[in-house]
């Protein structure tokens, strides 16, 4: 065979001593081929330098080899929130290992997800992973209407909520934060929540209140937005009450908000944990590097990203067991509380 000739599947089958159908099954990764024949085909592929015709394969399988990651957040938050960027990086790595292309879709909030849904319907992608969705009326429903597999990172709430989601056990995260503050002696705690139209923020608040309610404590609540700006604003609002002794412990529902609040308190001469104990959630690298290092509930982007890509691939391959994935919460204790 001349080097300029394109190697075909028939060439591979001939070299391996198998039928074309068997060679095709091995190249596609199908099961049901003996180990001996699989090895022979793989050796022929390597020696001949065979490259599968992805366009032809797509026509047969109706797969594009592309997955969308949808983030219904403002652009500035997508690129400044460590949780979002780390989760996308993990998904990208996992899809790359499977030779699947990732495309980003920035979902519109004003249109309740309709623009993103319109794109997902056009046949450009095989499936979608949605991160950081809100409980806007119709947002989840719009995305679920696209008739392609969709996996949510974050438990969705809709009229007919799907089971295709992975999430941290956020209720337990709130419980762990409350328990730690109580263990450290806090008796007048506050919570800086994320946006309460997000399930994660609502669940962390629920777990926090549940533990404190058992000992007759009703925490002070300030609603943030999972942003540094909202964390600093909440920190500044709490500062006079910390100075007066009215507040002695704070659970900030994300590292980003906790770090911003910490900076606001430092500017006022308030010290953590001497003047106020602080617990956060996410356990990103910034939490461990803070001064003082933050006690934080782990929100493992590697586990969530891998679980979401595995679930989506299982749905596409029709091997999914139909069950969501709930990741147990774990508290990393450091100097802030």
TrEMBL record:
<dbReference type="GO" id="GO:0000976">
    <property type="term" value="F:transcription cis-regulatory region binding"/>
</dbReference>
<dbReference type="Pfam" id="PF00356">
    <property type="entry name" value="LacI"/>
</dbReference>
<dbReference type="InterPro" id="IPR000843">
    <property type="entry name" value="HTH_LacI"/>
</dbReference>
<dbReference type="GO" id="GO:0003700">
    <property type="term" value="F:DNA-binding transcription factor activity"/>
</dbReference>
<protein>
    <submittedName>
        <fullName>Transcriptional regulator, LacI family</fullName>
    </submittedName>
</protein>
<feature type="domain" description="HTH lacI-type">
    <location>
        <begin position="7"/>
        <end position="61"/>
    </location>
</feature>
<keyword id="KW-0804">Transcription</keyword>
<dbReference type="InterPro" id="IPR046335">
    <property type="entry name" value="LacI/GalR-like_sensor"/>
</dbReference>
<dbReference type="InterPro" id="IPR010982">
    <property type="entry name" value="Lambda_DNA-bd_dom_sf"/>
</dbReference>
<dbReference type="Pfam" id="PF13377">
    <property type="entry name" value="Peripla_BP_3"/>
</dbReference>
<keyword id="KW-0238">DNA-binding</keyword>
<dbReference type="InterPro" id="IPR028082">
    <property type="entry name" value="Peripla_BP_I"/>
</dbReference>
<keyword id="KW-0805">Transcription regulation</keyword>
């Amino acid at each position: 065979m001349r080097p300029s000739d394109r190697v075909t599947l028939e060439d591979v089958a001939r070299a391996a001593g198998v039928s074309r159908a068997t060679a095709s099954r091995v190249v596609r990764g199908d099961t049901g081929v003996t180990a001996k024949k699989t090895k022979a085909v793989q050796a022929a592929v390597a020696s001949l330098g065979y490259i599968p015709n992805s366009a032809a394969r797509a026509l047969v399988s109706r797969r594009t080899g592309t997955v969308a990651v949808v983030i219904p957040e403002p652009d500035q938050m997508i690129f400044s929130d460590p949780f979002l960027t780390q989760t996308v990086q993990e998904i990208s790595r996992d899809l790359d290992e499977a030779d699947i292309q990732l495309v980003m879709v920035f979902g519109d909030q004003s249109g309740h997800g309709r623009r993103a849904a319109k794109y997902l319907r056009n046949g450009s992608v095989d499936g979608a992973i949605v991160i950081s969705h809100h409980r806007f009326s119709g947002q989840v429903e719009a995305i679920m209407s696209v008739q392609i597999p969709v996996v949510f990172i974050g438990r969705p709430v809709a009229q007919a909520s799907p089971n295709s989601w992975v999430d941290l056990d956020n209720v337990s995260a709130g419980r762990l934060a409350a328990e730690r503050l109580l263990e450290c002696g806090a008796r007048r705690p506050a919570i800086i929540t994320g946006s309460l139209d997000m399930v994660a923020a609502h669940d962390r608040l629920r777990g926090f209140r549940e533990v404190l309610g058992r000992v007759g404590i009703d925490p002070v609540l300030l609603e943030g937005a999972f942003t540094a700006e909202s964390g600093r604003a909440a920190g500044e609002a709490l500062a006079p009450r910390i100075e007066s002794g009215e507040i002695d412990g704070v659970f900030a529902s994300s590292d980003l908000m906790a770090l911003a609040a910490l900076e606001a308190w430092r500017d006022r001469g308030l010290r953590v944990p001497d003047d106020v104990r602080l617990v956060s959630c996410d356990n990103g690298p910034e939490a461990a590097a803070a001064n003082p290092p933050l006690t934080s509930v782990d929100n493992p982007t590697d586990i969530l990203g891998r679980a979401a890509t595995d679930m989506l691939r299982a749905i596409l391959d029709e091997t999914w067991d139909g069950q969501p994935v709930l990741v147990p919460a774990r508290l990393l204790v450091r100097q802030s509380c």
